[in-house]
């Protein structure tokens, strides 16, 4: 009934009446996302009528009302089939100022029309394959980049930037060709990075270092939304960058982007949820940055930070070594003269995602993968994270997976039901241990680490393939004293247990032994339990095959002698 009345007035053609009826329709259906199939034909005709009205010279307020209703109707994919034409797309491009070659963002009164046109395009392109093809034909990505350049450093147009970026994200999500066009032809990497710089109001103090005001106000909601959309678009543009970047100029661009993302991690949004969303998108984008460019996440201390530390340390007595170390770490997150604030934020972000207890694959694996690669490639980052996650062991009375420390939480993930989650959690701890099996077992126990070691062929011990510095871990006195009594499987100190066979007679022992042999034989014959052995390369295999391989090796050695 609403569509029929609106269609009648739209066809009548009087601008004032059209504006009123469409405003009423928009107010009533603003939250409508599912439509009745019985009125589908009327909605199609209403869309066609609105496009005809938009061709006319009508007031700005009437244009906005038309576009608001068109945006609502474009949520229905079936309605879009007959109205998604090149002519109608060009109408929206014109209203969104995407066809203008000159600087035409001067009339503030036109901004609502531009924003609503971009919103309509977002819905139509996302819901219509025909619109996606027309976007390629009309070179929409280039037009959006041109509009972004007009928006650069302009005030009061954050909504235009936000929906321009959202449409750019949708296009790059749906078309790999557009990703390549954005990356190389349209210089999307520096353009979108500059959008982020503008949103964060970055002031550079060095080539890859920015000034951080920890006491400054949080980002505004508009700045936060713009930054999130830019991060999502950049993710699509750089999705394969770790495979293809080769030129020095690209390394510089990625380093600048990584420095901007470091700044992003150290600021907050208007709410806690918005801050987490902002940081989550920053983490996703950092995963696309070549690992060689991630060294800019840490930076040398500034003169002010060094002076502040010196003043604080001078105030402490010379014999207060432990207190000085505590002050140093708590004040500036310093390791080896480097500012580790961004890495500490990533670590806290990871722990929050673990504490959520759900959606680990989507929410946790990106940050765990990022920290793993950073640790593998950059020594200072690895040593700082080792200090935070795997500090020297003192209390070994509890199992490694029991407790509330980051180490305990990660060890619990090593036996998670999701294979991807357990693998990346184990890999992270393994890298922090410099891929040394004995070091990993010390912190996790053999039972928790068995999956990783079996997959890597390291059940017999040894170390991984990557090279790390040869500095040794220092065991605490508490660990050294307890080490002989630690259960290697569980990884903790167990109280001596009474031996149940001590009080048995020889006949009882023989009976229990034969009972055990028969049970194992039955399990083996029914293939419920398969005896396994280690191959020479450290991987597990059925016991017969392992014995055969060792026999071949012994025969070969004998022939050689």
From TrEMBL:
<dbReference type="InterPro" id="IPR008376">
    <property type="entry name" value="Chaperone_Ric-8_A/B"/>
</dbReference>
<dbReference type="Pfam" id="PF10165">
    <property type="entry name" value="Ric8"/>
</dbReference>
<dbReference type="GO" id="GO:0007186">
    <property type="term" value="P:G protein-coupled receptor signaling pathway"/>
</dbReference>
<comment type="subunit">
    <text>Interacts with some GDP-bound G alpha proteins. Does not interact with G-alpha proteins when they are in complex with subunits beta and gamma.</text>
</comment>
<dbReference type="InterPro" id="IPR019318">
    <property type="entry name" value="Gua_nucleotide_exch_fac_Ric8"/>
</dbReference>
<dbReference type="GO" id="GO:0005886">
    <property type="term" value="C:plasma membrane"/>
</dbReference>
<dbReference type="InterPro" id="IPR016024">
    <property type="entry name" value="ARM-type_fold"/>
</dbReference>
<keyword id="KW-0143">Chaperone</keyword>
<dbReference type="InterPro" id="IPR011989">
    <property type="entry name" value="ARM-like"/>
</dbReference>
<keyword id="KW-0963">Cytoplasm</keyword>
<protein>
    <recommendedName>
        <fullName>Synembryn</fullName>
    </recommendedName>
</protein>
<dbReference type="GO" id="GO:0005938">
    <property type="term" value="C:cell cortex"/>
</dbReference>
<dbReference type="GO" id="GO:0005085">
    <property type="term" value="F:guanyl-nucleotide exchange factor activity"/>
</dbReference>
<dbReference type="GO" id="GO:0001965">
    <property type="term" value="F:G-protein alpha-subunit binding"/>
</dbReference>
<keyword id="KW-0344">Guanine-nucleotide releasing factor</keyword>
<comment type="function">
    <text>Chaperone that specifically binds and folds nascent G alpha proteins prior to G protein heterotrimer formation. Also acts as a guanine nucleotide exchange factor (GEF) for G alpha proteins by stimulating exchange of bound GDP for free GTP.</text>
</comment>
<comment type="similarity">
    <text>Belongs to the synembryn family.</text>
</comment>
